[in-house]
Design brief:
alpha+beta, 8 helices, 13-stranded mixed beta sheet
Length: 280
């Protein structure tokens, strides 16, 4: 391990990490890194071998008791040499004492089990152009027209700790569209679409009913090139899976949501798409 050093990621490193994730076929959002950086500025680590970046991982702290690990990449030329696991241990050390979650690709899930993670459900990416239809009477508004405190409070139903800084950036970055469904003054749905290398990613997607989710998806797809979107859907919500299939989207990729302890209590029936496989 001589010559291997671990340090925090710079702004330039965040650009590099995004490019690495793209090479892995993960289809990261074009501007995700800007929201990532405000979630936990010290939560992104890079391993350098003789000064050259060769591995990365994110270990983001939320609130006082939760953390999420992701963006775990070792460059092909150094895999199997122990550099990646050293960086992994540094990331996990940063989250010591917290419940930790991740989304593990199929080929790495056995390794994550050895690190104490247990599967809770699978997030299955569905892609395609939603079949046309109306809003079904659902009142959809620009999320930016609502007080941010209401959006943050709504997000807390679906995530175990407050993440206001992340959510503010995630919904407000240029090029993105954030829409909310409102009924009698209550927020009953929220969705964000963002440009990516491939199909535009939708996430999060929260909805009180399938009709709300469908209305949001169709409206969000209007802001995607060619109407093509991708949504990471928890298979623990069979209603969401059936809705995406009914709209003509097809499964293309999956990752296991795993935790180091009991899965946190969230509104799974209302969770139609997670915000990010990298940060939860």
């Amino acid at each position: 391990m001589t010559g291997f050093e671990i340090g925090g990621a710079s702004a330039a490193d965040m650009d590099m990490i995004r490019a690495w994730a793209d090479e892995e076929g993960w289809n990261p959002g074009d501007t995700d890194r800007f929201a990532f950086a405000v979630a936990d500025p010290d939560g992104f680590l890079v391993g350098r071998l003789d000064g050259e970046p060769v591995a990365c991982v994110s270990a983001v702290r939320y609130g006082t008791g939760f953390g999420f690990i992701g963006l775990y990449i070792a460059r092909p030329r150094v895999r199997g040499q122990g550099y990646g696991i050293r960086l992994w241990k540094a990331g996990m050390s940063r989250l010591d004492g917290r419940l930790v979650g991740l989304d593990g690709v199929v080929e790495q899930q056995d390794n994550y089990r050895r690190s104490g993670f247990r599967p809770a459900w699978n997030n299955v990416r569905h892609e395609g152009v939603p079949q046309a239809g109306g809003d079904g009477g659902v009142h959809v508004v620009d999320a930016a027209t609502l007080p941010f405190s209401r959006l943050a409070a709504y997000d807390r139903k679906f995530f175990p700790e407050p993440r206001d800084a992340f959510l503010s950036a995630w919904t407000g970055l240029p090029g993105r569209t954030a829409l909310a469904a409102v009924r009698d003054g209550r927020v009953e749905g929220l969705g964000v679409v963002r440009p990516c290398s491939g199909a535009s990613r939708v996430g999060p997607l929260y909805a009180a009913t399938p009709e709300v989710a469908a209305a949001l998806l169709r409206r969000l797809a209007e802001h995607a090139p060619g109407g093509e979107i991708a949504v990471d859907v928890p298979d623990a919500n069979p209603t969401a899976t059936a809705l995406l299939a009914g709209l003509g989207l097809v499964p293309t990729f999956e990752a296991a949501r795993m935790y180091t302890g009991p899965a946190p209590t969230v509104d799974l029936p209302g969770l139609y798409g997670v915000a990010s496989l990298e940060l939860g």
